[in-house]
Amino acid sequence: RIIKTASSPVLDEIQCKKVMKEYGINVTKPVLAGSKEDAIDAARRMGYPVVMKIVSPQITHKSDIGGVKVGLKSDADVKKAYKDIMKAAEENAPGAVIDGVSVQKMAGKGLELVIGMSKESQFGPMIMFGLGGTLVEILKDVAFRFVPLTGQDAREMIRQVKAYRLLEGYRGQPPVDIKHLEELLLKVSRMIEENPEIKEMDINPLIAYEKGAVAVDARIILEPDAFK
Ligand code: ADP
Ligand code: MG
Asked: Which ligand is nearest to the CA of 53?
């Protein structure tokens, strides 16, 4: 069992990505910082540009409250982002327990996708795949398959979404690494199978490239009886 130390049903981004990394899922690794100085130190170590995000078990939609700053290119940017994030959290999420701010490398531009899992069906957990970002909510262009996924499930669900044309490369845009996405879906399926205490999870967005893909945000919610 990988998830054994959770003290809350909502894992933060740092905990989620740790679990995902164990399953071979490529992630941008967040480093927790408790002060401006720590954040600058972390950013210098990993190299600019970086992204900073609020870390709080009560805040699952971080950018909604002003808790995400992307494209930070200098110590001064990091210092300002730290202040702005803390201020935004105070104003927009009063009472939330703030563990700090995380610093991670800014991933390059690519196609934003989403992979999720829910247990709403009485027949067990389902994995969802589709276009990411805000488009996913509007277009509902997603495919579902039951866990455990087969190789054929993974191939089919990617090809089933209308956005598949974008994945193949559209109007001069390069194609994305579809083989990598198929393997990624199988890794997610294995993670769900081996950790039945996961109630819900999503990677939103996963940024896909001509070669490979990276999970830049992750969310896991545990079953109510899975933590102490
Ligand atoms: P939330 O979904 O909780 O609001 P995210 O971590 O998804 O917060 O960040 C919001 C947006 O910022 C993402 O959809 C993505 O476009 C961008 N983003 C987040 N982290 C990175 C990163 N490491 N590299 C590049 N872009 C990022
Ligand atoms: Mg997100």
From this structure: 1
Separation CA 193–CA 188 (nearest Å): 9
pTM metric for this prediction = 0.95
Q: Which residues form the pocket of ligand 1, taking CB atoms under 6 Å from any ligand atom?
A: 28, 51, 53, 61-63, 68, 70, 104, 106-107, 133, 205, 216-217
d(CA 216, CA 171): 26
Tokens 């899922």 map to which residue? 25
Residue by residue, DSSP assigns 38-104 as HHHHHHHHH-SSEEEEEE-TT-SSTGGGT-EEEEE-SHHHHHHHHHHHHHHHHHHSTTPPP-EEEEE
Q: What is the pLDDT of residues 113-142, one digit of tens each?
A: 999 999 988 899 999 999 987 766 788 889
